[in-house]
Design brief:
two-stranded antiparallel sheet, single chain, alpha/beta
Length: 279
């Protein structure tokens, strides 16, 4: 690319930064055994995604052929080799959704726990091993300083269905985005790229599979938000989750996707090169 073309790219990309594009169509791999994820597929496809389903991680030849791995209702035995592949997948800059559940699935919860501990560097994280919640009360989305509940739609302080979810503990409160109303049990947590030890990839975990059995309109929107976060989620400035009108919070979760940031870098490089050539 010559300097003139590089400069034009830069100017166009910088100008475009005021309008953040929606997430690009993605390749999504769903790993599950009991077909409880069928309601998810049309939601992904409506976003333009290509969805493939697998009965185990070993059935996926190359995890990096996908942008998102969705650990749906896969509660069978998983190996340390599978764990290493998932960790490598996230470290390559991709998004992983983990499904915690009880009382069926402590071995799978423990497997996920190891993955999340490794990627976050937080060895206090615990998934499962404390029975089911004693309540079938709904769960509530909170106001974390993460884009997961505001991009593309603001779903903070809304509720979603949970049926005796499993327990999660030891999670940094700043990463928690959902709790069960009556019990204060942690239901959902997420980590953006800058929250992970290698500054690559994104993680989401939810401790109840039942919310995906059937999707209300608001739960469908939550799934879309989770998808967007797994593709391009970012932290928000401190306090912006609870009060988006604070200085510096305008725009909420509308954060540039990696492709937009790459274009911006390319454009700035063009501007620098152009100035040097003129000098």
């Amino acid at each position: 690319m010559n300097l003139k073309a590089l400069l034009l790219t830069g100017l166009l990309s910088v100008a475009a930064m005021g309008v953040v594009p929606s997430a690009n169509a993605a390749n999504v791999a769903i790993v599950g055994q009991y077909n409880r994820w069928n309601v998810e597929i049309p939601v992904f496809q409506a976003q333009g995604d290509t969805v493939s389903t697998f009965s185990s991680y070993s059935a996926i030849a190359d995890l990096k052929a996908y942008d998102i791995i969705w650990d749906a209702d896969y509660f069978g035995p998983s190996s340390s080799a599978d764990s290493a592949r998932v960790i490598d997948f996230v470290k390559s800059g991709r998004g992983f959704y983990g499904q915690v559940e009880r009382p069926c699935c402590d071995s799978h919860d423990f497997w996920l726990q190891g993955i999340f501990r490794t990627l976050t560097g937080d060895n206090d994280i615990v998934f499962g091993f404390n029975g089911d919640s004693p309540s079938n009360a709904p769960s509530q989305f909170l106001t974390p300083d993460l884009s997961i509940l505001v991009d593309p739609s603001d779903i903070r302080n809304t509720t979603f269905d949970s049926q005796a979810p499993g327990w999660m503990g030891g999670i940094d409160p700043a990463r928690i985005f959902a709790k069960q109303e009556q019990t204060d049990w942690v239901i959902g947590a997420a980590w953006a790229t800058t929250d992970l030890v290698d500054n690559a990839g994104r993680l989401v975990v939810v401790s109840d599979i039942d919310w995906l059995d059937s999707l209300t309109d608001s739960e469908t929107q939550a799934l879309i938000n989770f998808r967007k976060f797994l593709l391009a989620g970012q932290p928000l400035p401190q306090g912006c989750g609870a009060n988006p009108t604070l200085p510096g919070c305008q725009g909420g979760g509308q954060v540039p996707e990696p492709g937009s940031l790459a274009l911006l870098g390319l454009g700035l490089a063009g501007l620098v090169a152009f100035r040097r050539r003129k000098a």
